[in-house]
Amino acid sequence: MTAKLILGTEIREAILEEITAEVKQIKEKHGVVPGLVTILVGENPASISYVTLKIQTGHRVGFKEVQDSQPETISEADLLALIDKYNKDDSINGILVQLPLPKHIDEKKILNAIDPDKDVDGFHPVNVGRLMIGGAEVKFPPCTPAGIQEMIVRAGVETKGAEVVVVGRSNIVGKPIANMMLQKGKGANSTVTIVHTGTKDLASHCKRADILIVAAGVPGLVKPEWIKPGACVIDVGVNRVGEKISEKTGKKIAILRGDVDFDAAKEIAGSITPVPGGVGPMTITMLMKNTLNSLKFKLGLM
Ligand code: NAP
Predict the structure, then answer these.
(1) What's the rounded mean pLDDT across residues 78-94?
(2) pTM of the predicted model as reported, rounded to 2 decimal places
(3) Ligand 1 close to Cβ of residue 239 (< 6 A)
């Protein structure tokens, strides 16, 4: 059996087209477009490339994109003042502070200063609480878990009554996706187990999963014999295991592996996400969706 591939690269294109069409409609009817500001502190090359991709994607879907680059030396007070400025700016619907921040700045303090109704990353405690309550309370599900749920739904996998096992309990992936899958409603209503390093028998839990979501950051952690035949396997792990020369560009690039032994797992699973090209492309896509939704909430369209 060869599993159906769930490709984030394809799903991203479909969602970005839907967002572009909606932005156009809102612009025609209401004369506004979603505004997203990305605050970048310092010159960390990885952060610059993430921010560049976010800005390019924002432009592609028709957003007003503001890139606010600040020097590494900015004080915490000045950064808080900047956030306050964007909290009050009517043309901005989403505020994103690229992490990590320099050591002299308290990240938590900065993230908690963002207006929860502009917190399109979904990390503010108010939005974490809204996610826990579920239903109409939810405004901004965090982007990677939202992408995972969207992939499961768009792949046509039944979630109602499914045994979902989540490997990992981080605040950005494991806990929120587990919480989302147990809510009553579309794309959820599952029976959820979370496993972690304190779990006694990881294999036995994975083996009964109809949907196995793995976010551990350990290459090849999940063995093929842990996968239930026909299961949907979502591999969130992105692990750099070496370097190679790109055939396209001739430049050195990282060799990436997931948390699942993909080649063997695809012969057992019913559907599976590859690494790269699986969950990865969904995170920025869902950031765009959250920013669009922020404007829709404001206009009373949601
Ligand atoms: P994290 O904060 O390091 O959390 C990892 C979780 O996995 C922890 O809860 C840890 O358990 C658990 N874990 C680690 N080793 C384990 C083992 N041997 N057995 C059982 N549980 C184990 O990581 P994260 O931020 O959630 O990210 C996880 C992976 O997803 C990383 O590879 C990351 O790069 C990737 N990721 C990808 C995207 C994307 O594609 N867009 C986004 C976010 C993350 P304890 O709590 O007991 O320590």
Answers:
(1) 98
(2) 0.97
(3) yes
